[in-house]
């Protein structure tokens, strides 16, 4: 198994006040103990770093950059993947669905990934399995 890692999971890991914090830590520990490869995109990293900086400050950004990011394999979004994400976003015509989400779905399909470490139900709507499974 290879797990795609979404902003919703990364943020839950790093903010102790997040409602999914303990579930995120439990899943993260399981992934690391089982040596599960963890893949994300540079778009997810950008979104995560922006949220951390705005909500928790630069110290949280620094901790994540030093301790969390090195554990992730980054799939770099190219021009074609970006265009596919924009097209998917416009086709979906849903305000609550983000470009980062759409690019993530495209990347997961391109890489043949089926499991997402995420608390964002949009992944399940797209046919991916959420890890941990929803309560």
Description:
This protein has 135 residues and is of the alpha/beta class. It has one domain: 5'-nuclease (Rossmann fold, 3-Layer(aba) Sandwich). Helices cover 57% and strands 12% of the residues. The chain has a five-stranded parallel β-sheet, sandwiched between helices. Helix 7 links the parallel strand 4 and strand 5. Helix 1 packs across helix 2. The longest helix is centred in the middle third of the chain and has 14 residues. It is globular, with a radius of gyration of 14 Å.
How would you sum up the global shape?
globular
Quick one: CATH superfamily? 5'-nuclease
Mean pLDDT: 96
> Number of DSSP strands?
5
Considering DSSP H and I runs of 4 or more, what fraction of the residues is helical? Answer: 55-70%
Integer tally of domains: 1
- In this structure, how is the largest beta sheet organized? 5 strands, parallel
Strand proportion:
5-15%
CATH architecture: 3-Layer(aba) Sandwich
**Helix-strand category:** alpha/beta
What's the alpha carbon Rg, rounded to whole Å? 14 Å
Number of helices: 7
Query: Which CATH C-level class is it?
Result: Alpha Beta
Per CATH, what is the topology? Answer: Rossmann fold
* Biggest sheet: strand arrangement: 3-2-1-4-5
Which sequence of SSEs, written as H and E, runs from N to C? Answer: EHHEHHEHHEHE
Q: How many angstroms separate the termini?
A: 22 Å
Uncertain stretches of 5 or more adjacent residues: none
Topology at a glance:
Layout: E1 3-5, H1 7-14, H2 21-33, E2 38-41, H3 42-55, H4 58-68, E3 73-75, H5 79-92, H6 99-111, E4 115-117, H7 122-125, E5 129-131
Parallel strand pairs: 1-2, 1-4, 2-3, 4-5
Helix pairs in contact: 1-2, 1-3, 3-4, 5-6
């Amino acid at each position: 198994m290879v797990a795609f890692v979404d902003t919703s999971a990364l943020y839950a890991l790093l903010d102790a006040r997040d409602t999914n914090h303990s579930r995120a830590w439990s899943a993260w520990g399981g992934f690391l103990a089982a040596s599960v490869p963890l893949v994300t995109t540079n778009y997810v990293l950008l979104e995560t770093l922006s949220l951390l900086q705005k909500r928790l400050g630069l110290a949280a950004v620094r901790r994540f950059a030093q301790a969390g990011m090195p554990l992730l394999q980054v799939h770099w979004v190219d021009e074609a993947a970006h265009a596919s994400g924009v097209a998917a976003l416009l086709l979906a015509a849903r305000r609550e669905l983000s470009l980062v989400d759409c690019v993530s779905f495209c990347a997961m399909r391109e890489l043949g990934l089926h499991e997402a470490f995420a608390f964002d139900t949009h992944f399940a709507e797209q046919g991916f399995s959420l890890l941990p499974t929803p309560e």
